[in-house]
Amino acid sequence: MELTRYVTIGQYIPRESPVHRLDPRSKIAAVTVLTVAVFVVRDFSGYGLLTLFLLGVVLASQIPLGYLLRGLRPVLFLLLMTLVLNVFFSGIQGGTVLFQLGPVVATREAVLRAVFIGYRLVALVLVTSLLTFTTSPVQLTDGIERILRPFRRLGVPAHELAMMMTIALRFIPTLLEETEKIMKAQMARGAEFEHGNILRRARALVPVLVPLFVSAFRRADELALAMEARCYRGGEHRTRMKELRLAPRDAVALVLTLAASFVFTIPYTTWQALLR
Amino acid sequence: MPLIEIRNLRHVYHAGTADAVVALDGISLTVDRGEFVAIVGGNGSGKSTLAKHLNALLLPTEGEVFVDGMNTRDRGALWEIRQRVGMVFQNPDNQLVATVVEEDVAFGPENLGLPPAEIVARVDEALRVVEMAEYRQHEPHLLSGGQKQRVAIAGILAMRPQCLVLDEATTMLDPQGQREVMETIQRLNRDGVTVIHITHAMEEAVQCPRVIVLADGRVALDGPPAEVFSRVEELERFRLVLPPIPALAHRLRRDGLPIPEGILYVEELAGALTRLVAEGAGRGRAGDGTH
Amino acid sequence: MALIECRNLTHVYLKGTPLEAVALQDVTLSVEAGEFVGIIGPTGSGKSTLIQHFNALLRPTGGALRVSGIDLANPRADVKTLRQQVGLVFQYPEHQLFEETVYDDVAYGPRNLRLNEDEVGERVVESLALVGVDPNRFGRRSPFSLSGGEMRRVAIAGVLAMRPRVLVLDEPAAGLDPKGKEEILGQIRALHQAQGLTVLLVTHSMDEAAQLVRRLVVLARGRVVMDGPVREIFRRAQDLAALGLGIPAIAELMLRLRGSGLQVSPDTLTVDEARAAIREALRWN
């Protein structure tokens, strides 16, 4: 049980870096811009510059590169699958054949495409992890709430969404701890979670899931009562202790990101023409 | 005008159905400003139902509850009543909303629509009062039970209430956490906050100047602890067990030992017994003489 | 050979990471069959980590541990047999109830042991009776319709239905009202006395320990700091206070009375014993 005490919420790593100090809204905007750029870039020069830019941001954020790369582990399988599928089942007709194994053909074009797609995946994970590593969950939800606020008139429940996210984040560690405890309690009564086929394993989870749901509902009930007792009545009348405020550095960061993204997307051939 | 006035309060769950349960059956009592009241009772005595009437989380089936002169049935006064009577609940995990301590303490004042500067000032003060200022940036789930409850108390204090209701807020805590919470609310009471402490820990009730015993949805006993805890037979009937020292004092009195009524603490009983030895020395020696 | 035997048992969480935390350090302890042992210590002293080793929910990261003859330092130890022999009741065990009826919930353990339905039924009836729940009245009811105290007793019955030799309970009376506490602790005492179960009771309450156990193990910061007969441990009031633990009110009273010259026995823990001791010292008969 003590183990889950070390689970930190999200992946936030507190540092006093310029990236940490940015307003969450500008970071969300920058991530959006970079995501678009990642998909628009089409050649090596663009990817090279993008990589340099990202490395610069990582350096400024004071987040060890190792942490960021570890974030890639969960997508490693996906990455490999993407590479293999794109190399051998690209559907590209013709092109320079690099090697052939029976009916399976790998062409130069297919390999290039696979590398680009793989690189996009890596870049996307890096960009979003940079956001979650440098932005506390509180800031992130505040940022999302503020960005959505203008859309309230269109019926977007900005405050409710943000409140749901906050509560989810708050209760993830509690429920993890609870899951571990219930699993152990059932194991003490002879439950086995690691043996048997999928069907048996799924059935073995019933004694864990039922108590977990019962407890989650009880918690939700009690939390709702506690919130009501603290005068909660939705987003109306509500103020915030920390109102988000854009600073000049946010403008600088956004302009930099936009300019850089523009530069990445210029194809190499255009560079050649320009430099000539 | 008393801070809280309850008149003939009845509460029936599922009223009018086959499952109707009478939880409160004709309760009348008043609590004045600055009081420190313990409400004790076994499971099913109606303690928690009563607590939820004090800030309009529940409304009476019959009878009236007034907070600072406002009827809890008055929808227009709802938020004012809830601001005045704050409530701390049993499970420390299920009442903290935010992922950071200071954000949680700010939750109440934010709901009141206060300006940011005012909220910051109140959060600072509330965390200082419960001695949790150094934890303001911590994640609540990493705190001990006693610390979580103190954060919950700070969250209420930041709304500047007149009355703090603790609904079994110490039940799930270890002895250290129980001590922390008791010390905190005693300090608050000295600073003028009215405290209503609902508990089934008799050792805690003993420390409160007024004890109300609930049984079967009615007020069974109401008075200072020395008086309430001398009614041993009645307490047993109400699923309550005397703490060891009052229980021992009661037995010794029943044996005929001339010690005063209403003994609650170790020091009192030790004092009474040593005095007895000093005074009754003659009797002891007379006994010796027969050898 | 002792039923439970720890030698220099050490447990380190997340070993080799920056979050490494030593939960138990060189715990040496043995429990004989038929004992009733209290384990007490402040929060974070390692109590809960220790008891989870006794039925292999956690494995030692150092030292030796044998429970019921099974060597738990061996990664291929027969965990299944062990979990049947050592019943572990967690805090707030009612939170593990999940079946539609009380009967089926208690039957969960025996069914996991692949017993036939006749024997399962026998065990369910027997273990419900042991915790004072009438199988005929409650068997067909939903566990979620019971009162808090009843739910807890049903949950304990679910562990007893494994017919363990050792029962380990983590704060079995937590959160109950005074009468409910008395009832559950009384039943645990009866299980020890009438069924001859070896019982290990984790508690925060010195008064509970004083009423129930004969031997007390005091943990602090992952180490065993005291281990001995309850009455001897309570004489060390100052050492206990230094650990943030009190002594039972009656023991404190007796120490005070002795301090002011009254010749009462220091081995007095319960209200009845204290009454007798005071009457004797005052020659009041």
TrEMBL record, chain B:
<keyword id="KW-0067">ATP-binding</keyword>
<dbReference type="InterPro" id="IPR005876">
    <property type="entry name" value="Co_trans_ATP-bd"/>
</dbReference>
<dbReference type="GO" id="GO:0043190">
    <property type="term" value="C:ATP-binding cassette (ABC) transporter complex"/>
</dbReference>
<dbReference type="InterPro" id="IPR017871">
    <property type="entry name" value="ABC_transporter-like_CS"/>
</dbReference>
<keyword id="KW-1003">Cell membrane</keyword>
<dbReference type="GO" id="GO:0006824">
    <property type="term" value="P:cobalt ion transport"/>
</dbReference>
<dbReference type="InterPro" id="IPR015856">
    <property type="entry name" value="ABC_transpr_CbiO/EcfA_su"/>
</dbReference>
<dbReference type="Pfam" id="PF00005">
    <property type="entry name" value="ABC_tran"/>
</dbReference>
<dbReference type="GO" id="GO:0016887">
    <property type="term" value="F:ATP hydrolysis activity"/>
</dbReference>
<keyword id="KW-1278">Translocase</keyword>
<dbReference type="InterPro" id="IPR050095">
    <property type="entry name" value="ECF_ABC_transporter_ATP-bd"/>
</dbReference>
<comment type="function">
    <text>Part of an ABC transporter complex. Responsible for energy coupling to the transport system.</text>
</comment>
<protein>
    <recommendedName>
        <fullName>ABC transporter ATP-binding protein</fullName>
    </recommendedName>
</protein>
<dbReference type="GO" id="GO:0042626">
    <property type="term" value="F:ATPase-coupled transmembrane transporter activity"/>
</dbReference>
<feature type="domain" description="ABC transporter">
    <location>
        <begin position="4"/>
        <end position="241"/>
    </location>
</feature>
<comment type="similarity">
    <text>Belongs to the ABC transporter superfamily.</text>
</comment>
<dbReference type="InterPro" id="IPR027417">
    <property type="entry name" value="P-loop_NTPase"/>
</dbReference>
<dbReference type="InterPro" id="IPR030947">
    <property type="entry name" value="EcfA_1"/>
</dbReference>
<dbReference type="GO" id="GO:0005524">
    <property type="term" value="F:ATP binding"/>
</dbReference>
<keyword id="KW-0547">Nucleotide-binding</keyword>
<dbReference type="InterPro" id="IPR003439">
    <property type="entry name" value="ABC_transporter-like_ATP-bd"/>
</dbReference>
<dbReference type="InterPro" id="IPR003593">
    <property type="entry name" value="AAA+_ATPase"/>
</dbReference>
From TrEMBL, chain C:
<keyword id="KW-0472">Membrane</keyword>
<comment type="subunit">
    <text>Forms a stable energy-coupling factor (ECF) transporter complex composed of 2 membrane-embedded substrate-binding proteins (S component), 2 ATP-binding proteins (A component) and 2 transmembrane proteins (T component).</text>
</comment>
<dbReference type="GO" id="GO:0016887">
    <property type="term" value="F:ATP hydrolysis activity"/>
</dbReference>
<keyword id="KW-0547">Nucleotide-binding</keyword>
<protein>
    <recommendedName>
        <fullName>Energy-coupling factor transporter ATP-binding protein EcfA2</fullName>
        <ecNumber>7.-.-.-</ecNumber>
    </recommendedName>
</protein>
<dbReference type="InterPro" id="IPR050095">
    <property type="entry name" value="ECF_ABC_transporter_ATP-bd"/>
</dbReference>
<dbReference type="GO" id="GO:0005524">
    <property type="term" value="F:ATP binding"/>
</dbReference>
<comment type="function">
    <text>ATP-binding (A) component of a common energy-coupling factor (ECF) ABC-transporter complex.</text>
</comment>
<keyword id="KW-1278">Translocase</keyword>
<dbReference type="InterPro" id="IPR003439">
    <property type="entry name" value="ABC_transporter-like_ATP-bd"/>
</dbReference>
<dbReference type="GO" id="GO:0043190">
    <property type="term" value="C:ATP-binding cassette (ABC) transporter complex"/>
</dbReference>
<dbReference type="Pfam" id="PF00005">
    <property type="entry name" value="ABC_tran"/>
</dbReference>
<dbReference type="InterPro" id="IPR003593">
    <property type="entry name" value="AAA+_ATPase"/>
</dbReference>
<keyword id="KW-1003">Cell membrane</keyword>
<feature type="domain" description="ABC transporter">
    <location>
        <begin position="4"/>
        <end position="246"/>
    </location>
</feature>
<keyword id="KW-0813">Transport</keyword>
<dbReference type="InterPro" id="IPR017871">
    <property type="entry name" value="ABC_transporter-like_CS"/>
</dbReference>
<keyword id="KW-0067">ATP-binding</keyword>
<comment type="similarity">
    <text>Belongs to the ABC transporter superfamily. Energy-coupling factor EcfA family.</text>
</comment>
<dbReference type="InterPro" id="IPR027417">
    <property type="entry name" value="P-loop_NTPase"/>
</dbReference>
<dbReference type="GO" id="GO:0042626">
    <property type="term" value="F:ATPase-coupled transmembrane transporter activity"/>
</dbReference>
<dbReference type="InterPro" id="IPR030946">
    <property type="entry name" value="EcfA2"/>
</dbReference>
